[in-house]
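Four helix bundle protein
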Amino acid sequence: MEAMEEVERARLIEEIRSLGDSLSKHPSVSVLQRYRHLIGLAIGMVRSTMALKRDYKWRRSERTLYVLIERTENALAELEAVLAGEGDRSRVLDLVEEIKGCLISILS
């Protein structure tokens, strides 16, 4: 079961990375929607894992995960605003990299 979750997590990270690359090269609303959906899935996986671990009195780095989740959600909101305003492509790349870094930290 654990190995299957690890494979699913790795596949999700790879798909997010691929969409992030696509989004930085050719920003579009449809790619952003798919990207946002996948990040929502990743955050949902983390939240469900945190809920399970909380039942076992696990609290070690819970605050760090919440901060990373919040940073990811804020970066997504900013990314959406930048793309809606035909924003700076370098800012799009920075935001995609920030989101990717947060997700790698969260899912690792």
